[in-house]
Design brief:
Elements lengths: L15 E5 L2 E2 L5 E5 L2 E5 L7 E9 L3 E11 L25 H18 L23 E9 L4 E7 L6 E3 L8 H12 L8 E5 L20 H15 L3 E5 L5 H6 L5 E6 L2 H13 L5 E5 L2 H9 L7 E5 L8 H10 L3 E6 L2 H11 L5 E9 L9 E8 L5
Parallel strand pairs: 4-6, 11-12, 11-14, 12-13, 14-15
Antiparallel strand pairs: 1-5, 2-3, 3-4, 5-6, 7-8, 7-10, 8-9, 15-17, 16-17
Helix pairs in contact: 1-8, 6-7
């Protein structure tokens, strides 16, 4: 192990060195330094001393592969999954669950300050999942031909490449999904390159096979409770559910408002949303199919802004800038923004709150994705002067 490397200029691929880990970046990689030069390494913990091998060197940072843990964190635990650190699905199985929650909260605070410009933002503690393993109700399994074993690998993308690691069981998946996985392995796809979605259907909800639904049933009641409480506290009478999917939020919130409308690009999801509303006797709203950014101007014109809450639950990429600018113009009294990507959430909220138009009154993270880098957040944004 080299002891002579003093700064990033001395680094080269293949170099071995000792690092002290002082932080975990959003995405799960540990952060160490050689002088002022940053080195990222996965599957480590704050306070650990580790031996690593450099795998990539850039102008301002490097990446390394963990070789050995010299001094272990007292909060390190043994991962229950034999594929952990090979499979790219999980990043935090080596951490005690309480540490995962604290880490995610800190990462969200950092992102809101650095990306959103919120200097004194208060982020609630992360709501824990009652079932940190065996919670996922949907997984995508890939197949890839392995020329060395002359057979198919059926599983997930590796942590260190685009190759597929062969998986017999996923520890974070619902037991029923592992039964489906076992069946798939007994009856494999005819060739590599095929993706198969395994899913446990939510009870009493119509969800087309490829349409979105929250992936964690066990924390879903808490998510519903939270958004209902926030809408109730604002006193809003009308709801616009943008990126509504199969109508989950609008159906759950319909009883709190006089009227609602949901918009979604997925035609099959819209048809399912209408059926879900009928099933629950939600007759005070409608669903329209189309691009949210194109339909939003006509939707916000339907209701008085001072009595309207807009629900945003966009893809990981966040909301288009033009949609956020429109909301700043129309100024609905409340915007509830649900996101599984805190970085794009911080960016979008920074735009909404620019020039003092809106205030972020509360951000509550929920650990819908234990053992992974991901976390769900619910941000309550109120028009300046109308905060409660």
């Amino acid at each position: 192990m080299s002891e002579t490397i003093q700064n990033g200029n001395d680094l080269a691929v293949g170099a071995k060195l000792r690092l002290s880990i002082y932080d975990i970046a959003f995405g799960g990689e540990g952060v160490g330094r050689i002088g002022e030069f940053v080195v990222f390494v996965a599957f480590v913990m704050v306070g650990e001393e580790v031996e690593v091998e450099i795998t990539e060197v850039k102008k301002r940072f490097a990446r390394a592969h963990l070789l050995n843990i010299i001094q272990s964190s007292p909060h390190r635990v043994t991962p229950p999954c034999p594929y952990f650190a090979t499979c790219g699905g999980c990043q935090y199985q080596h951490m005690d669950y309480s540490v995962q929650l604290e880490l995610k909260q800190k990462q969200i605070v950092d992102l809101f300050q650095r990306i959103g410009g919120f200097a004194e933002i208060i982020i609630d503690p992360v709501v824990p999942c009652p079932r940190p393993y065996g919670y996922r109700n949907r997984i995508m399994v890939r197949s890839q031909w392995d020329k060395f074993k002359q057979g198919l690998n059926i599983g997930f993308i590796r942590a260190d490449s685009r190759l597929v690691v062969d998986i017999e069981e996923c520890k974070i998946a619902e037991p029923a999904l592992n039964q489906q996985l076992e069946h798939l392995r007994r009856h494999p796809p005819p060739k590599g390159g095929i993706k198969v979605v395994l899913r446990v259907a939510p009870q009493d909800w119509e969800v087309p096979h490829d349409s979105f639904f929250q992936n964690n049933f066990h924390l879903l009641p808490k998510l519903v409770e939270l958004v209902r409480e926030r809408v109730r506290s604002s006193g809003a009478k009308h709801l616009i559910d943008v990126y509504c999917g199969v109508g989950f939020f609008s159906v759950e919130l319909a009883g709190l408002v006089t009227s609602f409308v949901g918009v979604e690009l997925d035609q099959r999801a819209i048809r399912a949303a209408r059926q879900n509303a009928i099933r629950r006797q939600r007759t005070n709203g409608e669903y329209v199919a189309g691009r949210a950014e194109e339909l939003l101007p006509s939707l916000v014109a339907k209701f008085p802004a001072a009595q309207t809450v807009v629900m945003l639950d966009p893809p990981r990429t966040g909301c288009p800038r033009e949609s956020l600018e429109l909301l700043r113009e129309v100024r609905p009294v409340q915007i509830l923004y649900v996101s599984c990507h805190p970085a794009t959430l911080a960016r979008d909220l920074g735009l909404l709150c620019a020039e003092g138009v809106y205030d972020v009154t509360r951000v509550t993270p929920l650990d819908m994705f234990p053992q992974t880098q991901h976390v769900e957040c619910v941000a309550d944004v109120r028009l300046k002067g109308f905060s409660k």
